Amino acid sequence: MASKQWDHLVHYINDLDQVVEVFGENGLIAFKGGSHKDWGTFNTLSYFGLSYIEFLGIESPELARSTEYNLVVRDAVAALPEHEVLSRVVIRTDDIEAMAASLTAAGLSLSPIMDGKRLDMSGSLIEWRMMTIAGDFGGLVYPFIIQWKGTDEERLARLTASGIVRPHPAGHAGIRRAVFRVPDPAAAAGHWANLFGLDIAESTETSAILRIGDKFYDFVKGEENRFMQVILDTDSELLAGQTIRIGEGEYVFQASN
Q1: Residues 143-166 pLDDT 10s
Q2: Where are the alpha helices (DSSP H) in 56-140?
């Protein structure tokens, strides 16, 4: 069976430099990632172990508008510049073909499996494979799926050796939960659980929680039908209890248990 982990999340942003500044003011490292030359986008990244935040902006509007299969880019064109919203969570797998077969069998419409690449700020080529999922469930868009080269252990060692994964000046912090506000939390969580093979950790009339590895997707009652908030655990006295608001997204830091 294909493995599933929460790889990263995507947040649409107009000014990538502002993100670096705001995170830096709070003792967090964010840095320019590089450009997606085939899609007309570029990003700023902030790593918390292997999981990370991708702040995605439009570098070439003409190229981004012409993108055919990459729904993440197409949605960025639709959202920006007016709405700097949290876009999607991204599920990492070690067998993207198996996940494609499973999701197709469930009746979903998928993009072709795409070879992604970008140049980092040192000019090194970063490569991956990904696919997006068309449509939504009651208005909530689906995650996209990614597979990186090598094992998680190999990738973490490489990212650590290169200095991409490193301690934040404010102290330890880790991405723990994504919060989605939807009209029917149990239905949305149950749908994702069935599609992606995730466990339901808790379900009530007003909320439902899915477990993905050591992290969670929280579905709470609301009418927005979208990804609203990221919750991070921290042992930092500077960060605990703080909320960093960027565009229409919130990053909430809670003290580690």
Answers
A1: 999 999 889 998 899 899 889 999
A2: 61-65, 71-79, 96-105
pLDDT tens sequence across 206-251: 999 999 999 999 999 999 999 999 999 999 999 999 999 999 999 9
Distance CA 39, CA 62 (A): 9
DSSP string, 185-214: HHHHHHHHHHHHT-EEEEE-SSEEEEEETT
Distance CA 88, CA 85 (A): 9
Contact 27, 169 (CB under 8 A): yes
Q: Are 103 and 97 in contact (CB under 8 A)?
A: no
How many angstroms separate the CA atoms of 95 and 70, rounded? 19
Determine the distance from the C-alpha atom of residue 16 to the mean position of all C-alpha atoms in its chain, rounded to a whole number: 16
Contacts of 109 (CB under 8 A, 6+ apart): 133, 134, 135
* Backbone φ, ψ for residue 84 (5° rounding): -90, 75
- Residue whose C-alpha is closest to residue 170's, from 251, 125, 118, 237: 237
Residue owning tokens 């990804």:
227
Residues 61-95 pLDDT 10s: 999 999 988 999 999 999 999 999 999 999 999 99
**Cα(113)–Cα(11) distance, integer angstroms:** 22
According to the CATH classification, is domain 5-255 in 3.10.180.10?
A: yes
CA 233 and chain centroid, separation = 17
Query: What does the CA dihedral 218, 216, 254, 174 come to, rounded to 10 degrees?
Result: -140
Nearest to 42 by CA among 120, 145, 143: 120
Helices (H), the chain: 16-25, 61-65, 71-79, 96-105, 152-161, 185-196
